[in-house]
Structure to design on (269 residues):
């Protein structure tokens, strides 16, 4: 019994030491913490994986709706880099003195598209007064929150400018973020949805019915910035890679467009 107990005790000690060693190694390899808009997930996961292969360091990426992430940062959440789905929320953190203004850059751009579940027989052109309500029938239009989430705000603006908002404003299925809206259509729970072009490209279970004209909504630009209190060693190298040419190719492959390094005034949302 003594020998068995001793073996158990030794095994427990070794397990603790092993776990401690692994945690130390993991901590040594940990990269910056990035708060990023949900629509960036597929592309940014690939960018992070490429950087990890090159450096051995793994960024910690937290995805979510842009307003929720911005509010968490405002309330003191620890993050090194923020990538917003629009300029307004980045502007808000800038006014609060929470970002390194000199690092701010327009990272990528995007399109706004109308999607249907794969195999749908619906068809339409996206133009002023198009019959969106007729296409919906008794169904609902999947869209991110039109009051707070950038994709939802862009969607509402486009529908208003095309004079079809009043047709469908009572038939919305509002989601917490654009990826949640995408899933409603992908699963066939909504006959139509408004998402970003990159979202549609990421899901083989949806089909793009049409692209909203650029003039129907403000330019979709994703600004990125390091946060004011970010540790330089943790964030500097990854931010440089994130905003460099290799990452740009990855974003384009996932359906994003390039974005110029512009001041907020130059691309005001």
């Amino acid at each position: 019994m003594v020998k068995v107990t001793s073996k158990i005790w030794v095994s427990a000690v070794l397990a603790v030491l092993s776990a401690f060693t692994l945690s130390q190694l993991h901590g040594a390899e940990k990269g910056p913490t990035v708060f990023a808009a949900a629509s960036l997930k597929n592309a940014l996961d690939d960018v992070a994986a490429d950087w990890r292969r090159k450096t051995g360091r793994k960024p910690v990426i937290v995805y979510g709706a842009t307003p929720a992430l911005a509010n968490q940062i405002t309330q003191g959440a620890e993050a090194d880099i923020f990538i917003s789905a629009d300029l307004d929320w980045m502007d808000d953190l800038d006014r609060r003195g929470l970002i390194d203004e000199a690092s701010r850059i327009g990272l990528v751009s995007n399109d706004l598209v109308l999607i249907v579940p794969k195999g749908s027989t619906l068809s339409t052109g996206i133009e002023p007064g198009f019959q969106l309500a007729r296409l919906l029938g008794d169904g609902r239009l999947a869209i991110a929150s039109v009051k707070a989430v950038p994709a939802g705000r862009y969607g509402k603006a486009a529908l208003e400018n095309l004079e079809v908002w009043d047709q469908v404003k009572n038939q919305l299925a509002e989601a917490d973020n654009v990826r949640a809206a995408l899933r409603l259509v992908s699963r066939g729970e909504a006959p139509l949805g408004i998402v970003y072009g990159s979202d549609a490209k990421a899901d083989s279970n949806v089909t793009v019915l049409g692209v909203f004209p650029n003039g129907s909504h403000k330019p979709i630009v994703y600004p990125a910035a390091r946060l004011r209190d970010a540790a330089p060693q943790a964030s500097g190298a990854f931010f440089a890679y994130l905003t460099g040419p290799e990452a740009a190719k990855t974003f384009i492959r996932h359906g994003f467009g390039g974005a110029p390094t512009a001041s907020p005034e130059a691309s005001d949302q």
Notes: The longest helix spans residues 2-29. The radius of gyration is 22 Å. Residues 112-211 form a domain with the D-Maltodextrin-Binding Protein; domain 2 fold (CATH 3.40.190.10). The chain has two domains: 8-109+221-261, 112-211.
